[in-house]
Amino acid sequence: MTINSLPQQAINVHPSIGTALVDAHSKETKLFRPSTMRSVTLSNRIIVSPMCMYSSENGYFNDFHVAHYASFAIKGAGMVFIEASAVEPSGRITLEDAGIWCDTHIPVLRQITTLIKSQGSVPALQIGHAGRKASVYSPFHELSGLLLKKEFGGWPDQVIGPSAIALSEDYTVPKEMTEQDMSRVTEKFIKASIRADKAGVEVLEIHSAHGYLIHSFLSGNSNQRTDQYGGSLENRMRFPLKIIQCVRDTWPQHKPLWVRISASDHKNDHGDIGGEDKDGWDINQSVIYARELNKIGVDVIDVSSGGNLAIADYSAGPLYQVPLCHYIKKEANVTTSAVGVITEPKDAEEILQKGKADYVLLAREFLRDSGWVFRAAKELHVQVQWPKQYASADRERYS
């Protein structure tokens, strides 16, 4: 029996898995405090970050993805982000990326979102376009990160960007986009958001980070145009804001819209908040961008960093991106989510307690431990709802 054929009463879980059961500790613990964005309520503030699995063929999700995302929902994550899905075939990073460029991608995605909802979690999806970082080998190949040539299934002649500047010698030189190209890509984002809604996605995130298409327009390190889309910060933000505004206008108003940003290119700032890269991309420009995103109805700024330069000046240690998130939250007065080597429950709780972010996103730690929510509850002394099928594993009940 598939999840779609289950009777409605069989897929309603009350309370949701990962919900804090009312006691003194759960009231004091922000990590397990529910949160509402527009019409969507999360049972806790622990979110599975979008992670590319490089396991699709022609963009299609498959049985692996169903099992993969179900594992997080069954074990209590408040929201589960489904990996970056390309809005057009040439917008994939690798040949094995997920996609949402045609209606036939909807059915399996709908199966995944239905399953996530059945466990009381919230299904979210990140959509994006790889831009000048497209057509490379996936991490599963010996040639990982190197250009995937046309004879091996790549599309180097279709790679696009703001300027004809390659990320490095390992990548192809992108075609500088025309205004016609920009209109076409904008329409692809709009149609992708419509498909996401039809597939049952409740929260949509636009990928505007890590050197992919939208981020590459924002940064003067990759955007050296001399028209209305290059030069000043206002010009560099023009195309990104247009895409996001069009998606916000199309995406149902009762559903939240997130945007992931790279707070800095880390060109010369050593990861320091005070570092400047006025002609490239830095934390101060990110604050201005975050304010503009807030004005057009973006609900959460998902703060990451880097990815736009082949050589960047920073070290990636535990919690290394949290100060960037905190700075943007404070200076732009926006709702934010923190990412970046968050592994310990006490650290995740402290991020929220000290007002450094409103949500925490974990990536590889969830791959190591899909039951991280239950671990966090135990360490923070909060009793939470377990799936009834796994109740015998909640030994705290019997101690």
How does this structure look, described?
The chain has 399 residues and is of the alpha/beta class. It has one domain: Aldolase class I (TIM Barrel, Alpha-Beta Barrel). The protein has twelve helices and 13 strands. It has an eight-stranded parallel β-barrel, surrounded by seven helices. Strands 1-2 form a two-stranded antiparallel sheet. The longest helix has 20 residues, at 179-198.
Write out key terms for the chains shown.
globular; eight-stranded parallel beta barrel; alpha/beta; 12 helices; TIM Barrel; 399 residues
Record the SSE blueprint.
Layout: H1 8-11, H2 24-28, E1 35-37, E2 40-42, E3 46-48, H3 63-74, E4 79-86, E5 98-99, H4 106-118, E6 122-128, E7 160-161, E8 175-176, H5 179-198, E9 203-208, H6 213-218, H7 233-250, E10 257-262, H8 283-295, E11 300-304, H9 322-332, E12 336-338, H10 345-353, E13 359-362, H11 364-368, H12 372-379
Parallel strand pairs: 3-4, 3-13, 4-5, 4-6, 6-9, 7-8, 9-10, 10-11, 11-12, 12-13
Antiparallel strand pairs: 1-2
Strand order of the largest sheet: 3-4-6-9-10-11-12-13
Count of folded domains: 1
- The Cα radius of gyration reads 21 Å
**What overall form do the CA principal axes indicate?**
globular
Structural class: alpha/beta
Please count the helical segments: 12
Give the H and E element order: HHEEEHEEHEEEHEHHEHEHEHEHH
First-last Cα distance? 36 Å
Round the mean pLDDT to the nearest integer and report it: 93
How many DSSP-defined strands?
13
Q: For this structure, what is the CATH homologous superfamily?
A: Aldolase class I
Low-confidence stretches: 1-11
From the 3D structure, determine the CATH topology.
TIM Barrel
- Please state the second-level CATH architecture: Alpha-Beta Barrel
Report the β-strand fraction as a percent range: 5-15%
Q: CATH class, anyone?
A: Alpha Beta
Please describe the biggest sheet, giving its number of strands, its sense, and whether it closes into a barrel. 8 strands, parallel, barrel
